[in-house]
Amino acid sequence: MLTWNKEIIIHAPINKVWNLxxxxxxxxxxxxxxxxxxxxxxxxxxxxTYEQTYKEGKRTETYIVTDTEYENTxxxxxxxxxxxxxxxxxxxxxxxxxxxxxxxTKFIYTxxxxxxxxxxxxxxxxxxxxxxxxxxxxxxxxxxTEAMKDS
Length: 151
Hints:
Elements: E1 2-10, H1 14-19, H2 26-29, E2 33-40, E3 49-56, E4 59-72, E5 76-85, E6 89-101, E7 104-115, H3 118-126, H4 129-150
Antiparallel strand pairs: 1-7, 2-3, 3-4, 4-5, 5-6, 6-7
């Protein structure tokens, strides 16, 4: 299993950062997600499902994303999602924002990628931790950059 936990400070108000995780803004921080459409939206968000299509190079994957945790207060915003990719990987990611002051937000990005079958487990074992760390670092930097554009 591959796990990650990255924290950064973003010099932008919490609501500006949180807005990037809305349906109509998601492609700003996840440019390879070419489609993200709701299937079922639940009251309280938890249990809501979305069909997401991801494109990398010529490969396109479509999968169902489920909201498993959700919190939205003035001081803290949190969303955890999970999905199965290519019947080989179970992926969970969480985005947590904590307001430090009117112009600063702590962004915590955590997750795990678990191989579900021999192919998935082998791929994770052979995969580079350094490469995964770069993907995580690039994502949090993109969130920071996009949030600061709006501030």
